[in-house]
Give the backbone structure.
Amino acid sequence: MLVIITPRFSYSHNRRKLLFIAILGLLSIVYLGLEQTDPLVYALHLTPISLTLAVLYEGMLPGIATWAAFCIGGIFIMHNDPLTTLLSSVVLFASGLLCHYKLETVSQLRMSLRFFALVFIHLTIFTTISLLQGGSFEFRTLALIGAANLLSSLFINYIYFHVKHQERFQQELIMSEKYQMIGHLAASISHEIRNPLTTTRGFLQLMGKEDLDRVTLDRYRKYAFEGVDLASTIITDYLNFSKPNEEKSQLLDVQIEIDGIIPWLQPYSALSNIEIDIQHLSREKLLILGESKKLQQCLLNVMKNAIESMPDGGKLTVQTQLAQNSVHIIIRDTGAGMDKSQVKRLGKPYFTTKENGTGLGLMVVMSMIKTMDGKIMFRSKPNEGTICELHFKRVELQ
């Protein structure tokens, strides 16, 4: 019962020992209080099998508890001879404890033989002392008990090694999932940081041009610093990933947020000969709840993907509008587009249509949009471009 319900890798050492003792107590009550057990079967079968199982597989503390339980049961309830019971069980306990510390290096067959050898030692000592004290045994009874002990030894060891194999497989699977998660996280971090650093690099290149006026130079420097700050914020967010904090949501004006990231995209879009067209179709303020940095990160990711889908130039259109008390951000490109199967796989780890992409950027975007209680949808056709729609609940000022 213990081996099956308590995998070693998921239970602490002390909790496992206490659980063993609880199971021992429960089964002792069943056998001693409810079952009509023959004293000889209790002494020569149940005691050695249970004590060997405890001390060989679980060690000293469970072994001592099992030894005490079966000695008390054998002497005071089954009324077996005290000297015979104590001596045979002590020898079995000591021998089993010596074998316990070499358990990991023994094969299943050798372990089964070792298990049966310990049981046989107990059976030999018990019967020998009993015979010396004038007792008698039927050969048929001893043969049946010996055969039962052999079968029990083989069965118990088969169960033990089978469950241990499953435990190792389970543990390897858990570790594999952890390593995969670490890989996803590392790739995701590199992808997210690359966006602002690419923008920063573009502004630093522009700052190297000759005959730049002071105002333009200061603007480029400001945008470059903002890109570095955004990269630092992303790193902080990932470092705090395992310590979730309450979202510090605030009122965001969608139109202002979009206008704020366009200067970051202009150098990148200019290199690909792409025109950016911003259309705010509502005269009212479009307010939503969220975090400015995260919303800008999401928009930057989607727009950068749109620009990269148009390597030979094109047009990126960004619209904001109000529809049924919902704020819509529509991002449309004239790029290569995707078929239905590709659209369905968007947001899955490592799915990407870009040659050097990871697919993790969009996965992060979808996660962030969801935390802001928003929705993201894609429509696309091959050679006709892609449309990305972001929907958020509008917040009205009282």
Notes: The chain has twelve helices and seven strands. Residues 177-239 form a domain with the Helix Hairpins fold (CATH 1.10.287.130). The beta strands are 250-253, 274-280, 287-290, 314-323, 326-332, 375-380, 386-393. The two ends are 63 Å apart (CA to CA).
